[in-house]
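Lab notes, practical 5.
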Amino acid sequence: MCIRDSPNGVPVFEKIPAKIITQKWGLIGNDYILAVSRLIRHKGLHYLIRAYSVLKNIDKKLVIVGDAYFTDNYAQYLRNLASDNQNIIFTGNQTGETLAELYSNAYLFVQPSEAEGLSIALLEAMSYGQGVLVSDIAPNKEAIADLGITFASRSITDLTQKLQYLLNHPEVVAEMGEKLKFRAESEYNWDNIIKKTIEVYNVVLNEAKIVKKMKVKEI
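Output from the prediction step:
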């Protein structure tokens, strides 16, 4: 690992019960699908809304957390797209305990991005022990390894099918969440990242000392 390739990191999170989100949006826990994202087109939220809207026999709401980022027109487009479905909730940007409750009590986390870096939102969902469904772009696949489920990026059909499968198989979602939490804690925990970074610095410093000694001997 070189220093410039150090991954993003997240703390180790523990789930907390639903309180604030029950008061604000009537969410009681395990009754919604969660997406946490800025409302920007390449985040692919329009695919998620369209896929969710054609699901059959669904008893989960769709909760979208985040605000526009100089993209008010796109944010309004998303709200228009969801206007006929009262089970789609836009919470706006959330932080602190409210965001922690949203992560903690979701049934499933979905990230439908067309383009992404190593997503902090995805890593946080993993650290909370959530099962995830993500687009099959390289950064998402790197984060989840072979422990989560992917769908073909930009494919509403594939996204719908994968969502329906996971809604029908809660045992798969639960098992996935446990494995992803372990991966987040072992690979993307800040304490481990700091240790690895210090190891790299020590290697570099030791190599520099060796080179310096060699030059002194040559003189």
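Observations recorded by the TA: Confidence is low (pLDDT under 50) at residues 1-6. Strands lie at 32-36, 61-65, 88-92, 108-111, 132-135, 149-151.
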